[in-house]
């Protein structure tokens, strides 16, 4: 039986770069972990085999690693769905009157917070995923600045007062 470790499993020398295709070479996946485990089993000393306890521990680590990877994928998927629906949810603000917080600065310091009322004209998502609102005064604000949302008062829908004198 060959006592050497296969080149695929050895630690690279300082001048070698590990060859990993299609992913970050610093991240070990479940396949890498399983390959190491199989290499350990294949190359163990037959007179001094790996203890059952060690094998069970490594299998538990493998199982934990796989579960963590599945959880990471689920969280990433949830984040993508949330990001894609945020724009649609904020589009419901178009035509609504909002109250938002404007920071008042003096000499680079925030000295006050004003509540300002405007109507939302448009909504967009920036490259970083943040939602921005275009107001009726041509100002873009972050959705985090929202304080209150109101139905826009329309002057044509306002009830007319009865001025008939008898």
From TrEMBL:
InterPro entries linked: FlgD
The UniProt keywords, alphabetically, are: Bacterial flagellum biogenesis, Cell projection, Cilium, Flagellum
User: Is the keyword Cytoplasm in the record?
Assistant: no
Give the start-end ranges of region Disordered.
Answer: 1-23
Q: Which stretches does UniProt call biased (Polar residues)?
A: 1-18
Report the family membership.
Belongs to the FlgD family.
* Listed name of the protein: Flagellar hook assembly protein FlgD
Q: What is the lineage of its organism?
A: Bacteria, Bacillati, Bacillota, Bacilli, Bacillales
